[in-house]
Amino acid sequence: MNASRTARERVRAELIKEITDIARRHLATAGAPGLSLRAVAREMGMVSSAIYRYFPSRDDLLTALIIDGYNAIGEAVERADAARPQDDFTGRWLAVCRAVREWALAHPHEYALLYGSPVPGYAAPQDTVAPAVRDTAVYGRIVADAHRAGRLTPPPICPPPPAVLAEDAEVVRSLMPDVPDDVVMRALVAWTGLYGMVSFELFGQFNNTITHRAELFDHNVTCLGRLLGLPE
Amino acid sequence: MNASRTARERVRAELIKEITDIARRHLATAGAPGLSLRAVAREMGMVSSAIYRYFPSRDDLLTALIIDGYNAIGEAVERADAARPQDDFTGRWLAVCRAVREWALAHPHEYALLYGSPVPGYAAPQDTVAPAVRDTAVYGRIVADAHRAGRLTPPPICPPPPAVLAEDAEVVRSLMPDVPDDVVMRALVAWTGLYGMVSFELFGQFNNTITHRAELFDHNVTCLGRLLGLPE
DNA sequence: CGTTCGTCAAGAGCGGTGCTCTCTAATAAC
DNA sequence: GTTATTAGAGAGCACCGCTCTTGACGAACG
To answer: Under an 8 A CB cutoff, do B212 and A164 touch?
Structure first.
């Protein structure tokens, strides 16, 4: 039977979940560099070497946390988007931007793990790329929906993108079908600007300078939305 | 005499410089987490404990590297700005943006130390704040110069900033005198957008997506310059 | 000139890390 | 019931930041 076989696999799956939960808690307090397999093992009442039955290396544990993190922020963004009427494109954009910022403020070390400096020896395996674009796909849908509805009126202030960028635009267009190259490029400006702002706030570049950070954030992503051509 | 006294201090200063040089080289290859006092000492032919005569802790060595890094990127930006005619505001903006990107690509780990995830236990001491704004001050001068020359025509697409942001604008205005609040806010959008783009490229968010990164960068910072109101 | 005092390198050592290896005990498969 | 697989335990390796003590050197002072 596979019922007995799954008996052992079930406890194994439970242990893996317990390990990642403890690791995530340690990550939240000590940050990624302070995450220690030995400390996790200690808290589980295990000896350190036993952990390696479940995660062959510290990097594998980090990978699990990274995938969970991308899914968590992706889900937060999806929820924020779904809570708005589909044709309120400006409201959806503002809502998903706020969702990113609020998730990042609530999970600063996890955000740093996803969008901060990469761990030098660490190479993200292929399993991380699918969850990594969950949030980005939401922006793409907003832009594509607005464009399809004819509500996207990008102000004529940007030069036309150079021809060589057409290939890159083609790749990005898989997330926002039928959107012209110029708008794809503007979407990239808005996308990088959004995360640039969150990272600056979280990584300390606003210290001693910006005090009303929520208001600045709202205002700036609104500007970026206008640059993108969102109405209102 | 203080000539003999400085004799000892001179060898001390030389050793400090040699330590930071080796440390910077290690940083460039292994990254900040891989920087080890013992490895630096080993390369100097010292025993590890001797290093602590010059840097009381690893964090102090990191602080020295951070200050050097801010000065290096600040100097690169200043040089790029000075190489352009003072009234070529758009050219100056593009030049300093490129200088930031090129410095970051040439010194990825140092850039990560300055603008990436903060080291969890580490609190930047006050000596780092003055060098940290060297590059930002250059952007401020460009915006202020363009505004004073009457060459700044921000497109009317952004809403007026909320009143509460006036205090923050006042602080930022020390870097760009006489510039109105609305333009200060646009400058913040451009500033965060610039570093957001560099960070995304360096930290791997463009992997499997963007191939023509220099062209995308130029195009995007040009868009940000237009949003700011730069001419052409 | 000789002594004293501050500075420096060296060594040993503490507690911590990731990771590997071997050994034993429990458990599933046949 | 025997065999094969798996989980945990323990010891150990090489590394880390950091501390403390010891001995040597050199500069300043009486």
So the answer is: yes
